[in-house]
Amino acid sequence: MTATGIHKEGARPRRSYQRLSERLRRFMAEERFQSGDRLPPERTLAENFEVSRSSIRKAIQMLADKGLLESRQGDGTYVRAPDMEPLKNAILEAVDSENLVFDEIMEFRKILEPAIAELAALRHSPEQLDQLKIIACDQQRRLLAGQEDGDLDARFHHCLALCAGNSLLAGTMDHLNKRYATGRTAELRDAQWRQFSVSSHLRIIDALERRSPADCRKAIEEHLNTILQKHPFVITRD
């Protein structure tokens, strides 16, 4: 065993390097390293983690094997964005399935959209917030005119997903909006429901302005729960 407590061979050293790689990964998250950022030199990391440079090098290699880091000869180690395409394609393929029914879509929305709302509260830009306000104002105008606003409701949820700053979440919401089009047209048919939709969106906007993840989550959960109570049906298909 070395002075750092890491074995040189056998099963135990791999577990030790695994733990070190997990510590390094947490460090990257806590320090908010982004894709393209360069890590501190190996010597600095070794001193900070109180391990040998060879141990740090092995931990870096483990993260590189997972696609999270990239070592460039003579230039250091850089953070890489993980390849999300396989996961994204699998999720979108599932959402596109013709076998999905209304209840399944709503269950998925109840898992997905509160998380989106929490991230949006922390990450939205002033321009994105202004866009949500414009959509809500357009909804109010259509409400007064007695017009349906299903397209605006879809735009609101799309823009909210963009506020979360995650392309996978935004892409999934786009697909859900397409699959949910029939239900959205039905639910927004009467004025009472359109008023509820506008009020819900205004509560979400208020929580976004205050950058309150908890209030954003609560507002979207109340919105989705009301939809489930009002429409316990299955989406019809051609």
UniProtKB/TrEMBL annotation:
Transmembrane segments: none annotated. It comes from the Bacteria. SUPFAM superfamilies: GntR ligand-binding domain-like, Winged helix' DNA-binding domain. SMART domains: FCD (SM00895), HTH_GNTR (SM00345). Keywords: DNA-binding, Transcription, Transcription regulation. GO terms for molecular function: DNA binding; DNA-binding transcription factor activity. This is FadR family transcriptional regulator. It comes from Desulfovibrio porci. The lineage of its organism: Bacteria, Pseudomonadati, Thermodesulfobacteriota, Desulfovibrionia, Desulfovibrionales.
